[in-house]
Write a structure and sequence with these properties.
Ferritin; 165 residues; mainly alpha; binds MU-OXO-diiron
Length: 165
């Protein structure tokens, strides 16, 4: 069964939202890199890569269902954050927004009785729990660190251990 125009449009918007996430995290990564916080930079660069994978998962699904992929302009992200905490607060808020977009997509698919899309989206529902939890944890650690450069360097070191998966 070919996807309905309504589901196709909503999925295309999500492709754009995931690419924007990649842009946002890459922009944060570049900002951290310029401030010599290379662990944060590495973690965010890998996160950006993961967001491209999210976008491609939906992109491939649209094609698999006989739909049309339409790539839209990607919004320009912010380019500078005053502190690591400001950046990760933005990342956490962004992930909460993405979760609400995924929930909205599930609702649209339910209205359209598109069971295959509802099923495909379950992966994203679970993924968002993880995405929110990991950014929230970094926010909490940065709050604990406060103005201590040593503590921030320790978090930077921990984040540098993130593996490419
Ligand atoms: Fe693709 Fe971070 O959600």
């Amino acid at each position: 069964m070919i996807i309905s125009k309504k589901v196709e449009k909503a999925l295309n918007s999500q492709v754009n939202a995931e690419f924007f996430s990649a842009y946002l995290y890459l922009s944060m990564s570049a900002d951290f890199e310029s401030k010599s916080l290379t662990g944060f930079a590495k973690w965010l660069k890998l996160q950006a890569k993961e967001e491209v994978e999210h976008a491609m998962k939906i992109y491939n699904y649209i094609l698999e269902r006989g739909g049309k992929v339409e790539l839209e302009n990607i919004e320009k992200p912010k380019t500078e954050w005053n502190t690591p905490l400001a950046a990760f607060n933005d990342a956490y808020e962004h992930e909460k927004k993405v979760t609400s977009l995924i929930y909205k997509l599930v609702e649209i698919s339910q209205e359209e009785k598109d069971y295959a899309t509802i099923e495909m989206l379950q992966w994203f529902v679970k993924e968002q729990v993880e995405e929110e939890a990991q950014t929230q944890l970094i926010v909490e650690h940065l709050k604990m660190a406060g103005d201590s450069k040593n503590a921030i360097m320790m978090i930077d070191h921990r984040l540098s251990k993130r593996e490419d998966d």
